[in-house]
Amino acid sequence: MLFGGNPAAAIYLGNMDSPPLDFPPALVDASAPALLFVRSARARRYRLTVRRDGVAVATIPLRGSEREAQRFVDQHRTWLERVRHRQARRPSAPEAWPLGTSVLWRGQMCEIRAAATGRRPQVCLAADVFRVPAHEGDLRAVLQTQFLRRARIELPARAWELAAETGAALKEVTVRNQRSRWGSCSARGHVSLNWRLIQTPDHVRDYIIYHELMHLREMNHSGRFWARVAEVCPGWRDAEHWLKRNSSVLGL
Q1: Rounded Cα–Cα distance for residues 101 and 113 (Å)
Q2: Which tops the pLDDT comparison, 101 or 19?
Q3: Total domain count for the chain?
Q4: How far is CA 2 from the centre of its chain?
Q5: Residues above pLDDT 70, as percent of the chain
Q6: Which of 116, 129, 131, 176 is the residue whose CA sits 20 to 30 A from 224?
Q7: Is the pLDDT of residue 31 over 60?
Q8: In what order do the strands lie in the sheet with 128-131?
Q9: What is the pTM of this model?
């Protein structure tokens, strides 16, 4: 994601599925069908993102203009083409998950296998077992629902643990089905986490949580903020690289 200035206190995914829900209908640049202009009352600066389908989304702040947004896009054409090229080369997530499909689970590609025990149908992902209606057909929806349930238990627990470790003023943790960011926080101490973090390695999950906790001290991405992140999470760059390489495998 490319910002026209300091970014807000949130970690955005490399590929937006769609603009945030508060966006009004987009204006389409007829000369460049792969570019959409959208206006957001909450945006503080111009912003450029690329959706999974390769469409670029230029966000216009409330007092901004489409002309300035176009200028911002033109200044970053090289970046835009590089992102689209990288997207085209990335492995994509399978649309359906029948038995035998390999999916990302806790940082590893694991094959969905039928569990040998239990009266009701169950499947295994590594050492974890999940109940399913049947072994036949697409298991993606039922498994992702169970991933979400586990995430809502495990991610807040880990966030509170790391908040105690760092002394961060955490007040509330929620887990959501976010499609444009890994995490976010508010000045009131509320941290929101993407449930897909349960599919990532532990060090990546912890990096995102540390990142948001440090925003409770620095609500920006200044040098001071990154110094705080590095202090509590020295391997944050490796975690960032993992996210860039694997976001498409998570279907983002």
Answers
A1: 8
A2: 101
A3: 2
A4: 15
A5: 83
A6: 176
A7: no
A8: 113-114, 122-125, 128-131
A9: 0.68
CA neighbor of 138 nearest in space, from 92, 94, 200: 94
70 is written with which tokens? 């176009």
Q: Chain-centre distance of CA 171, in angstroms? A: 22
CATH code, 110: 3.30.2010.10
Whether 248 and 15 have beta carbons less than 8 Å apart is answered as: yes
Q: Count the residues in the chain.
A: 252
Higher pLDDT: 28 or 94? It is: 94
Task: Tell me whether residue 95 is in a domain.
Answer: no
Torsion angle (degrees, nearest 10) of CA 9, 13, 15, 20: -50
Instruction: Find, among 65, 20, 71, the residue nearest to 42 by Cα.
Output: 20
Buried b (16+ CB within 10 A) or exposed e, 91-124: eebeeebeeebebbbebeebebeeeeeeeeebbb
Span 100-156, pLDDT tens digits: 999 999 999 999 999 977 678 999 999 999 999 999 999 999 999 999 999 999 999
Burial label, 136 (beta-carbon count in 10 A; 0-12, 13-18, 19+): exposed
Q: What is the pLDDT of residues 208-232, one digit of tens each?
A: 999 999 999 999 889 999 999 999 9
Beta-bridged to residue 114, according to DSSP, are 123
Phi, psi at 85, each rounded to 5°: -65, -40
Domain-embedded: residue 252:
no
Which amino acid, one-letter code, is at 49? T
Domain that holds residue 126: 102-246
Q: Report helix, strand or coil for 140.
A: helix
Q: Is 97 within the bounds of a domain? A: no
Torsion of CA 66, 30, 1, 75, to 10 degrees: -70
